[in-house]
Write a structure and sequence with these properties.
Elements lengths: L4 E3 L6 E3 L3 E3 L8 H4 L4 E6 L4 E8 L5 E9 L2 E10 L13 H19 L9 E8 L4 E8 L10
Antiparallel strand pairs: 1-2, 2-3, 4-5, 5-6, 6-7, 7-9, 8-9
């Protein structure tokens, strides 16, 4: 079964379910309208950057997307999804091999969405990362050019 998520290779729009679409013009004010039933947790980093964690649970899936804004401008998003709706809560039940397999599944999903090895576009770039420190893997997308420098709040 495929996740209820699509990534448009021409625009970088991330479709989450039938009605929620994240674009490079999405603002923090849009989030409650895009995700009316979701848990949205904002984190202000105190330097102009803000993260919004959005947790969705559509039909047998757990989907979490973290949107990173500078002011009201969406810079990047990070996506995780799984059919295991009881995610690992601590290091005691975490498994490195299983997490690395999840990264491989994310790569396969990207290939079905974007084509083989195509990861840089006019709208930005997308990649799969495995972070050994946090023990997690995710899909990341950055709109526009290289990562911007945070500004003081």
């Amino acid at each position: 079964m495929r996740p209820p998520i699509q990534l448009d290779p021409h625009t970088g729009h991330l479709q989450l379910g039938p009605s929620a679409c994240i674009t490079d013009t999405t603002t923090p004010a849009d989030l409650p309208h895009l995700f009316p039933g979701a848990t949205i947790t904002p984190t202000n980093l105190g330097n102009g950057w803000q993260h919004y964690h959005v947790r969705l649970e559509p039909a047998d899936w757990l989907v979490v997307v973290v949107l990173t804004f500078i002011g009201r401008y969406l810079i990047q998003w990070q996506l995780v999804f799984t059919q295991d709706t009881a995610p690992k809560q601590n290091w005691a039940n975490w498994n490195e091999e299983a997490e690395r397999q999840q990264a491989i599944r994310y790569q396969q999903w990207l290939t079905t969405q974007l084509g083989p090895e195509q990861r840089q576009f006019d709208w930005g770039e997308v990649w799969v990362g495995y972070d050994a420190r946090s023990g997690s893997s995710s899909i990341m997308a950055r709109y526009g050019g290289p990562e911007p420098t945070p500004r003081p709040a």
